[in-house]
Specification:
The structure holds 2 protein chains of 2 kinds. Chain A has 2 domains: 166 residues, Rossmann fold (3-Layer(aba) Sandwich); 65 residues, no CATH class. Chain A is built from 7 helices and 10 strands. A 6-stranded mixed β-sheet of chain A has the order 6-7-8-3-9-10, sandwiched between helices. In chain A, strand 1 and strand 2 form a beta hairpin. The radius of gyration of chain A is 18 Å and the shape is globular. The two termini of chain A are 33 Å apart. The model of chain A has no long low-confidence stretch (mean pLDDT 91). Helix content of chain B is 83%, strand content 0%. Chain B has 10 helices and no strands. The longest helix of chain B is centred in the last third of the chain and has 39 residues. At the A-B interface, strand 6 and helix 2 of A face helix 7 and helix 8 of B.
């Protein structure tokens, strides 16, 4: 039994009035403390799958199990980091990070203690009183990750969080992400369209097929950490991911 | 820059007063039709010295504030419900659009019949004149919220009234400010219009008294006061609030 299991997940979309099958029975088991990346051709529904895992969308078929229990709603044990961060512009960095704790009714002193830990981990201590418009895209994603981590979720779901970053910032965050993973021992499911990113981050990489998507192949990236994007030894893994992405056949 | 802008304004208004005085001095129209700025100024000073002007302003402002507060609270609730519950939008939403096209003074006869010549009647006209502008802006604001804000909040456990208070209202606030601003403008027109017709205290009443006494300078003096209060509230309350919200939200 995995930490989180997706069983035969199906999802339809309406396209020009006709139902379009986006997910054609996705099966994926992610073990406790594992870092799994999902890659796939654009429009294959990998983000939709992640949203279903988060409980933000309902599947049209199949089920999601967390620790063997069926899930049917969103919950703080599965926290999502959104592509654009989805930070609240009306709150300071600290208030953004503490949002979930405040909702949970945790008193201020305790909230501050928890948020300080993660603000420090994400190197945001200088920016605690800034508003989000004052931050760079990279800083915003750091805040978004801190906001997710304070919730101490069982599973961290990340939807292309580094897609909008410049390559320097991204390389830095790729290394940090591995350190955070090691430190927090979280189960992480990370969606990306960037193959090198997947090879750097993932202990396993699940390759989605084109629509209707299934998990076409799972590639184990068995290589020492922390990994850096320019490490040539990752090239063979990247090639393997790329070739299974390429052999998609006609849509 | 700012100083020169202020200077331009001062010069413009002084020029208006000079032209006005010049026209009056030309004696084209008799003084009881076209008073001089000095006569209007004397009327204002008289109103200030006997306190009647302050009493009128106070009465009108009190009605405005109560009416606008009702409109803001009611409009926000209605707008949020319309944005979040499709059935409410399809039913009440269409009615709101219709009701918004009724000028607030058109509610006066109904208000008199329902409330009599009372403060409540005037407040009713004020509130109903402003509520739909607030509603429509609150609705648009909530509809335009980035859906990921709502999803992120739900994901972190917010639901129901918590979601409304911590995300829907703050996220829609830049739009809501526009609604408050429009609502205030409608409310101010509503208050003065209703006071004219109710003839029951307030600036609109003083304006009407001026007409009944054939006192053109009082009429103009009251109109200037109404305009002046409008400029003050627009500039000092709503402009500042808007600037603050816009910069805080990173929209400017």
């Amino acid at each position: 039994m995995g930490k989180i299991e997706a069983k035969n997940i199906e999802k339809f979309f309406q396209h020009d009035g006709k139902p379009l099958k986006a997910l054609g029975g996705v099966n994926l088991t992610v073990n406790d403390g594992e870092f799994v990346c999902i890659v796939g051709p654009s429009g294959c529904g990998k983000s939709t799958f992640l949203r279903i895992l988060a409980g933000l969308e309902k599947p049209d078929g199949g089920e999601i199990m967390l620790d063997g229990k069926k899930l049917d709603d969103t919950g703080p044990e599965r926290i999502m980091v959104f592509q654009e961060g989805a930070l609240f512009p009306w709150l300071t960095v600290r208030d953004n990070v503490e949002y979930g704790l405040k909702i949970a009714g945790i008193p201020e002193k305790e909230r501050n203690e928890i948020s300080n830990r993660y603000l420090d981990m994400m190197q945001l201590t200088q920016f605690t009183n800034s508003y989000t418009y004052q931050l760079s895209t990279g800083m915003k994603q750091r805040v978004a990750i801190a906001r997710a981590l304070v919730m101490d979720p069982d599973v961290l779901l990340m939807d292309e969080p580094f897609a909008a970053l410049d390559s320097q910032t991204r390389d830095l965050l790729l290394v940090e992400m591995q350190l955070i993973w090691k430190k927090t021992q979280k189960t992480i499911i990370f969606v990306t369209h960037n193959v090198p990113e997947a090879a750097v981050l993932g202990s396993r990489v699940a390759v989605f097929s084109a629509r209707p998507s299934i998990v076409k192949k799972i590639i184990d990236v068995d290589y020492k950490r922390p990994r850096v994007a320019e490490d040539e030894n990752l090239g063979s893994y990247e090639k393997e991911i790329l070739s299974s992405l390429r052999h998609q056949g006609p849509k | 820059m700012r100083a020169s802008l202020f200077g331009k304004k001062i010069i413009f208004y002084i020029a208006i007063i000079i032209v006005w005085q010049a026209i009056d001095s030309a004696d084209i129209w008799p003084d009881n039709i076209f008073p001089s700025p000095i006569e209007v100024g004397e009327d204002l000073i008289y109103g200030i010295s006997d306190g009647s002007l302050f009493y009128g302003i106070g009465t009108s402002m009190w009605r405005l504030i109560v009416g606008l507060a009702i409109a803001i609270c009611g409009g926000m609730v209605l707008g949020i419900f319309m944005a979040r519950v499709e059935t409410v939008n399809q039913t009440i939403g269409s009615l709101v659009l219709g009701l918004q096209s009724i000028p607030s003074v058109a509610w006066v006869p109904l208000a008199i019949l329902w409330f009599g010549l009372t403060d409540s009647g005037i407040i009713f006209v004020t509130a109903i004149g402003a509520i739909f502008a607030v509603t429509i802006n609150a609705y648009t604001g909530v509809k335009n919220i980035d859906p990921s804000y709502i999803e992120a909040a739900r994901n972190m456990g917010a639901k129901g009234s918590q979601l409304i208070m911590t995300v829907l209202i703050p996220a829609a606030f830049p739009y809501m400010i526009t609604g408050f601003k429009q609502g205030w403008a409608f409310a101010w027109r509503g208050v003065i219009g209703a006071e004219l017709l109710f003839s029951f205290l307030g600036l609109g009443f003083l304006l009407n008294v001026g007409r009944q006494l054939n006192d053109v300078s009082q009429v103009i003096a009251m109109m200037l006061v109404i305009m002046g209060i409008g400029i003050l509230i627009d500039g000092f309350v709503f402009k500042r609030l808007e600037d603050k919200v816009m910069s805080r939200w990173g929209l400017r």
